[in-house]
Write a structure and sequence with these properties.
The chain is α/β, with parallel strands linked by helices. It has helices at residues 31-43, 49-79, 88-100, 145-160, 184-189, 241-255, 294-315, 335-347, 366-372, 392-397, 401-423, 425-437, and strands spanning 2-3, 104-109, 112-123, 126-132, 167-175, 198-200, 203-205, 216-225, 264-271, 282-291, 318-322, 375-376, 379-381. Helix content is 40%, strand content 18%. The strands form three sheets. Strands 2-3-5-4-6-12 form a six-stranded mixed sheet. It has a five-stranded antiparallel sheet with strand order 1-11-8-10-9, covered by helices on one side. Strands 7-13 form a two-stranded parallel ribbon. The structure holds zinc ion.
C-alpha cells in the first residue's frame, strides 16, 4: 500500500477459511478413562486430581511411544532447511504425519501454499498448537524451528489420545515464514485462529523462561522526489532530495528523546544520490517503528510520518510514504496459561529460570496470534547461555541430544497443559478472563 504526503493506514486483505471437523477412533484399552472424561465433560463435573493425573500420564506415554517418529521428523527438518515461504518439504512432512494419525488436513491456507492445518475432535474447548518450520539464510535451523514444528506435532498427536467425542478439539496450524514475512499475520486475518480457546508453541532458547515479551513493529519506506541540477554551477535551480532524508533522519532522532522507553525507531538511508556534483533528485529511507503496546505503536506512527512530511516541506520535495510489510503486533502474555505450562514442565524435571523478565526484545508474528487468542510461547533452554539463536552453534544445538530431548519435553508439557484445559474447565475460564481483562499491551 502506498500513500503520498499523509498518514496512511495499512489495510490487509484476508481470505475466509474453514476446515470440516473430524471424529476419532479410540483404542479399546482406554474405554474406561474416556467414559470418565466424557461424563465429566457432559456433566461439567471437575475431575479428580487422580483423573487428571491419569490423563497426563497418558499423554506423556503417547509422546514416548511416538518419540522415534518425532525424532526422525525433527532430524528431517534440520537436514532440509527451507527459507520463508519455501518450506514445501517441511510442511508436507508435518501435514502427512497428521494425516497418518487421523487428523483432517488442509494444505495451503490463507493463500499461503506452505501453510496447513490439521484438526481432530469436536466440541469445546479448541486447543491450538502452532508449528513453525522455516530456516535462516546460510545458517540452516539456527533458530531451532525444526524443534518447534516437531514439538507441536508431538503435542497435537498426544492430546488427541485424551480427546472424547464432543469434549474438545485439537488444531495444529502450520505457520510458514516466521523469520521473514510474518506468515502468521495472514493466517490470523483469515480467521484460522477464530474459536481457539488456548494456543501454544515452545521456542528453543538459551534460557528456560515462561514469558518472553515481543515488540509490535511497523516498517515504513519514505521516498523524496526533488530536482537534479549541477551542485556547483547551479545549486539554486535544484531541489535536494538527500537533504529531505537527512532532515527526516534528524527529526526522528530528536523525536526519539520524547518517546516511551519501550519504543524503538531506527532506520537506514537506502538511496542518497548518484554523484557529488549532481543535486540528488531522488532519495529514500527505510525505518522500523516498534513499541511494546499496540496503541502506542499506532500513536507513534503519525509522529514519524510528520517528521517525513516536515522534511518535504522544508526542502520543497515531493514525499511518498508506504508501509510495505504487515504490522507485527506486540506479544500479549497470558500468565494463567503460562503458569499451567510451567507446573507441567517442572513436573518433568526441567528447572525454570525465575530471573527478571528479559528486556532484550525483538518482534515476532506470534504477537499477532496472541492479540487474537490466548497464546503462550515459553522458551526452553537447549544451549549454553553464550549461544543464542541465529548463531551457527545454535543450529548445532537444534540437532544435539539436548535439543532433541527438549523437543520431547516441550511436546509433553504442551500436551499436559492441554489435559489441564480439557479436563478442568475452570482453567479455561481463568485464561479467558485474563485475556479479556488485559489491554493490547502487556
Ligand atoms: Zn525463531
Amino acid at each position: 500500500m502506498e500513500i503520498s504526503g499523509t498518514v496512511g493506514v495499512l489495510v490487509q486483505a484476508g481470505v475466509a477459511w474453514y476446515c470440516p471437523p473430524d471424529f476419532l477412533a479410540f483404542s479399546a484399552s482406554f474405554d474406561r478413562l474416556e467414559a470418565q472424561a466424557s461424563f465429566q465433560a457432559e456433566e461439567a463435573v471437575v475431575p479428580s486430581e487422580t483423573t487428571l493425573h491419569t490423563l497426563k500420564e497418558r499423554v506423556k506415554a503417547e509422546v514416548d511411544r511416538l518419540a522415534p517418529e518425532l525424532l526422525a521428523t525433527s532430524q528431517f527438518l534440520h537436514a532440509n532447511p527451507e527459507l520463508a515461504y519455501e518450506e514445501f518439504k517441511a510442511a508436507e512432512r508435518l501435514a502427512a504425519a497428521l494425516e497418518r494419525h487421523g487428523f483432517a488436513v488442509t494444505r495451503g491456507v490463507a493463500g499461503l501454499p506452505t501453510a496447513f492445518t490439521g484438526r481432530v475432535g469436536s466440541g469445546k474447548p479448541r486447543i491450538t498448537f502452532l508449528a513453525e518450520y522455516d530456516a535462516l539464510p546460510g545458517l540452516g535451523h539456527a533458530c531451532g524451528h525444526n524443534l518447534i514444528g516437531t514439538a507441536s506435532l508431538g503435542a497435537a498427536l498426544a492430546a488427541k489420545a485424551i480427546l472424547v467425542p464432543g469434549g474438545g478439539e485439537v488444531l495444529l496450524v502450520g505457520c510458514p515464514a516466521e523469520e521473514k514475512g510474518g506468515g502468521k499475520i495472514p493466517l490470523v486475518e483469515a480467521g484460522v485462529f477464530a474459536g481457539t480457546d488456548a494456543a501454544m508453541l515452545v521456542h528453543p532458547s538459551n534460557r528456560t523462561e515462561m514469558v518472553k515479551l515481543a515488540l509490535g513493529m511497523r516498517e515504513m519506506v519514505v521516498e523524496y522526489f526533488g530536482k537534479a541540477s549541477h551542485a556547483a554551477a547551479s545549486p539554486d535551480l535544484g531541489v535536494n532530495a538527500l537533504d529531505a532524508v537527512v532532515l527526516a533522519y534528524a527529526g526522528i532522532s530528536t523525536l526519539r528523546q520524547q518517546v516511551r522507553s519501550d519504543a524503538r525507531i531506527h532506520g537506514i538511508i537506502t538511496h542518497g544520490g548518484q554523484a557529488p556534483n549532481i543535486i540528488p533528485d531522488y532519495a529514500a529511507a527505510r525505518f522500523y517503528v516498534r513499541a511494546l503496546d499496540l496503541e502506542y505503536l499506532e500513536a507513534l506512527t503519525p509522529r514519524v510520518v510528520r517528521c517525513f512530511e516536515a522534511a518535504a516541506q522544508a526542502t520543497g520535495c515531493r514525499v511518498k510514504m508506504a508501509f510495505p510489510s504487515l504490522t507485527y503486533h506486540p506479544y500479549k502474555p497470558v500468565y494463567t496459561l503460562a503458569s499451567l505450562f510451567q507446573r507441567n514442565l517442572e513436573s518433568l524435571g526441567e528447572a525454570v529460570d525465575q530471573g527478571p523478565v528479559d528486556k532484550e526484545l525483538g518482534s515476532t508474528d506470534v504477537g499477532n496470534v496472541s492479540q487474537a487468542v490466548p497464546t503462550i510461547q515459553p522458551m526452553l533452554q537447549i544451549s549454553t547461555r553464550e549461544v543464542t539463536c541465529h548463531m551457527t552453534a545454535f543450529a548445532e544445538a537444534a540437532i544435539s541430544e539436548r535439543g532433541q530431548r527438549g523437543m520431547l519435553l516441550a511436546a509433553k508439557a504442551m500436551a499436559m497443559t492441554a489435559a489441564d484445559l480439557l479436563a478442568q474447565p475452570e482453567h479455561l475460564a481463568q485464561v479467558a478472563a485474563e485475556f479479556r481483562g488485559r489491554g493490547k499491551d502487556q
